[in-house]
Amino acid sequence: MHPDGAAHLTPTTPPLAQRDDTVPDAPGFDPLRLCVNTTVALIACVLGPIALLGFALLAIVGYTKARRGGLMRSKCKLGDTRVVLAYLSVIAVLAAVAIPLWVMLWVRVFGG
């Protein structure tokens, strides 16, 4: 264990999100969000509307809990959580409708 209390892979592995002061002009941010966005895009490419439906349902559950907990306005560009929930619901319905079409497309592509 390191002094910061975090478990690491090896004794020489630096703690996460730490900068190497010996490297000149190191960037001042950790581009983790870029990696996360790429992973989400990959999942969406592979699973198509199934992934879209899953992410939309996950977001609906999260926003519903947040709204019940008192959140009226979100940092989302849509603002009002009711509008965000309506948007996510429309996306979920469209994704659910698209799933059979997407499956038929892949069946035709793979000649099944």
Lay out the secondary structure.
Layout: H1 32-47, H2 49-68, H3 81-109
In short:
The chain is an all-alpha fold.
Describe the overall structure.
Helices cover 58% and strands 0% of the residues. The protein has 112 residues and is mainly alpha-helical. The protein is flat, with a radius of gyration of 21 Å. The chain has helices at residues 32-47, 49-68, 81-109. The protein has a domain at 48-109. Helix 1 (32-47) packs across helix 2 (49-68) and helix 2 (49-68) runs antiparallel to helix 3 (81-109).
| Low-pLDDT segments | none
Query: Gyration radius, to the nearest Å?
Result: 21 Å
Main sheet? none
- The H/E string reads HHH
Distance between the termini: 53 Å
Relative helix content: 55-70%
Number of helices: 3
- Specify the structural class: mainly alpha
Number of strands: 0
Mean pLDDT across every amino acid position: 83
- Name the beta content range: under 5%
Identify the quaternary structure here.
Answer: single chain
The general outline is flat
